[in-house]
Design a protein that fits this description.
With 460 residues, this protein is an alpha/beta fold. It has a single domain, classed as 4-Layer Sandwich (Metallo-beta-lactamase, Chain A), CATH 3.60.15. Helices cover 28% and strands 20% of the residues. Strand 5, helix 7 and strand 6 form a beta-alpha-beta unit. Helix 1 packs across helix 12. It is globular, with a radius of gyration of 25 Å. The N and C termini lie far apart (74 Å). The N terminus is likely disordered.
């Protein structure tokens, strides 16, 4: 069957598939166009607002609405997509693989699709794997944004998707491992942290708690609120070598400063580093939360997996809880970098965790095995073992190893019946809605409980 037939069949059957609305889809683009045509987007001549405000207002209210959900910030491999070599080929007049339409080399097929138009509307444009979890924190009564992995492309992807989805804070980071596609953006995190200005640098270990300092004062300095950073001990040891200015080694003694030599305190990202243990629940806490509150925080379980024969990376199991009686919790299993499943981890998933609703898993190549990443076949095999109730999403795809996004998903739908699909940057997963029958059943149960309480009180 030709792939055009796959594509046609895929879209003909979309009415029967329960999938999240993709960011940048035709519906979203049409909605944005309609808003613009009807004057809902502020212009310089109508309303005096900044270009940033106008930029944010151009997005739909549905996107901006804060709610418990998942947002794929990045879904590509370490090198991302498009590949720079493919773009350079376009400008090599003497390249034999170049025609008047650009490179004819099949290895650049998806890259040439990925450079077309706005990346927000191009599902073939992929950055390093990164997932944002939007969680409603009952203690602070605010939405908190937890990000798994901040790789080399994190700043770019955040600037692209945070405004679109109304993300106004970065509240915690969880790392899978220390490689640059997972942690290369740590230094950029300072640009996401709020600053308080204090007078005079600390002396003799004392800290100035004043927050009313003048930013222009020569004696004032910026202080950033530490951001929770959760990682393994091995990951921390490696990051201390990679980013010594962010995570200094405590055992290193700095040389004695000369009296005539000034003390320099650099402005860098600030982290509250928390190491975790395998299979032990992490309670992600936030700056405005009470550590003693059992209802606050966000619970995550780290799951060790092999990322090559010489490195343990971590996947994560977590549940996104609803903030509405109309929705169900979503049990998620996220494994972005895996070459071999640790048997104890699979046993833990199958016996200790609640049933998985959504599996998000590494898939670098379609068929060929790779020493440090799953292939499509291995990802599907893991999905068969775990049996997610709703969907398996593939991430970490090598740029030009697969078909273009929509063609590949049409193929996957035909082969796996809609249970396996490629994710894309900007994709949103909302919590599943309860059926009318479930809502009625819960209402009847609550009514019966209330009547039972009233009868007990009346009998006293």
């Amino acid at each position: 069957m030709v792939f055009s037939t796959y594509v046609r069949r895929f879209f003909e059957t979309q009415s029967t598939i329960l999938l999240p609305l993709a960011a940048g889809s035709a519906i979203t683009v049409a909605l944005a166009t309609n808003l613009s045509q009807n004057g809902f987007i502020a212009t310089e001549t109508s309303i005096h607002k900044s270009s940033l405000e106008a930029h944010v207002e151009s997005y739909s209210r549905e996107n901006q609405e804060q709610r418990p959900r998942l947002i794929f910030l990045g879904t590509g491999s370490s090198t991302g997509c498009p590949k720079p070599i493919c773009i350079m080929k376009m400008h090599q007049d003497n390249n034999k693989a170049t025609t008047e339409n650009g490179p004819s080399d099949a290895l650049c097929n998806v890259s040439l699709q990925a450079i077309k138009g706005d990346p927000k509307n191009n599902k073939n444009y992929r950055n390093n794997p990164s997932l944002l979890i939007q969680h409603y924190d009952s203690k602070s009564e605010n939405y908190k944004n937890i990000v798994i992995d901040v790789g080399k492309t994190f700043r770019e992807t955040a600037l692209r998707w945070f405004p679109k989805y109304g993300i106004s804070s970065l509240d915690a980071i969880i790392l899978t491992h220390h490689h640059m596609d997972a942690a290369g953006g740590l230094d950029d995190v300072r640009g996401f942290q709020s600053i308080k200005w204090v007078e005079d640098p600390p002396k003799n270990g004392e800290h100035n708690k004043s927050t009313g300092a003048d930013p222009l004062s020569p004696t004032s300095r910026p202080v950033r609120a530490p951001l929770p950073l959760y990682l393994s001990d091995f990951c921390r040891l490696n990051l201390q070598s990679q980013f010594p200015w962010l995570l200094p080694r405590p055992e290193i003694v700095m040389p004695q400063q000369d009296q005539d030599r000034p003390y320099v305190e650099r402005d860098v990202a600030s982290f509250n580093v928390v190491e975790f243990q395998n299979y032990t629940e992490i309670k992600v806490q936030f700056e405005d939360a009470n550590d003693a509150d059992e209802n606050g925080g966000f619970k995550v379980i780290p799951l060790p997996v092999w990322h090559g024969d010489d490195l343990i990376s971590h996947g994560y199991a977590f549940t996104v809880q609803p903030n509405s009686s109309l929705h169900k919790p979503l049990n998620v299993l996220y494994i972005s970098d895996i070459s071999t499943m640790v048997p104890e981890t699979l046993d833990f998933i199958q016996k200790q965790l609640p049933p998985t609703d959504v599996l998000i898993v590494d898939s670098l190549l379609p068929h060929k095995p790779h020493p440090v990443h799953f292939s499509l076949e291995q990802a599907v095999d893991l999905a068969d073992r775990i049996q997610p109730r709703l969907q398996t999403y593939l991430i970490g795809m090598s740029c030009d190893a697969f078909l273009p996004h929509d063609e590949m998903n049409a193929y996957l739908y035909d082969r796996y019946g809609g249970k396996v699909t490629m994710a894309h940057d900007g994709l949103v997963i909302d919590l599943p809605a309860k059926s009318e029958q479930e809502i009625k059943r819960e209402t009847l149960h609550e009514t019966a409980e209330k009547q039972d309480v009233l009868l007990r009180v009346a009998s006293l």
